[in-house]
Amino acid sequence: APAGKKFVIRYNYSFRGKLHQTTDEMKNVYNELKAYFMAYGCKVRESWKQARVTKGRKTVGQILFRGRKLCVAYALDPKDETLAKYHLRDVSDKKRFEQTQALLRLTGERKIKQAFRLVDIMLEGLGMQKGEVEKLTDVYEYKELEELILEGLVKENQVLVAEDYEEQGLEEMLDEDFEGENEVSEAPAGKKFVIRYNYSFRG
Fold first, then answer.
1. Using one digit for the tens of pLDDT, what is the confidence trace for 31-68?
2. What are residue 83's phi and psi, to 5 degrees?
3. How confident is the chain (203 residues) per 10-residue block, as mean pLDDT?
4. CB-side exposure of 141: number of CA atoms within 13 Å?
């Protein structure tokens, strides 16, 4: 590594990877939210970063993690004064939330109840009617980091940082808004990272 720099490993967790390591309460909440959206005829599909909720071709919501907190992004106007009591976060400045600009972090029982109420407000506002809410029993058993890596649910990325990154960059890299990655580890004891240049024949 260049002088004054060193490599660290940054772990890029998938949505499913974080789901395996979240609390049993949040796993249940996720199942309940999926079932609640589906009762309105929505489909919920998981991708690397989130579970996307759609009705037809329209994205009406996203269920995702920010750091280790489960969140829901809604196709609502975060500036709507009638929703002020929910303290929705405006994430319209981020491209991935272009269609779901109002974010709610599920930080406690009150916020969890609000999450379901906001589903009603949003989907009833779109003229949808709720049917029977089924009970989903999908199981997401706890898995250690090593197992998640082997299953492809966590990716390891090498990141070049300043040697004093703990004071000058780690906080930013671990911030809840940092896209995808949320854990950093230095090289194991007695090891170090090196750069290997892979030249083409022409190079």
1. 999 999 999 999 999 999 999 999 999 999 999 999 88
2. -105, 10
3. 74 94 96 97 96 96 94 97 96 95 97 98 96 94 96 88 58 43 49 50 61
4. 1
Identify residue 118 by its one-letter amino acid code. L
Distances (CA, A) of 173 to 7, 96, 104, 177: 14, 19, 22, 9
Count helices and strands (H / E) in the chain. Answer: 6, 9
Rounded to two decimals, what is the model's pTM?
A: 0.80
Q: Counting Cβ atoms within 10 Å, is residue 89 exposed (0-12), middle (13-18) or buried (19+)?
A: middle
Contact present, 183 and 174 (Cβ < 8 Å): yes
Q: Is 188 exposed, middle or buried (0-12, 13-18, 19+ CB in 10 A)?
A: exposed
Phi, psi at 8, each rounded to 5° = -130, 160
The DSSP secondary structure of 46-101, one letter per residue, reads E-SSEEEEEETTEEEEEEEEETTEEEEEESS-TT-GGGGGG--EE-TTSGGGSS--
Q: Which residue has the tokens 């004071």?
A: 167
Q: Residue 123 is which amino acid?
A: L
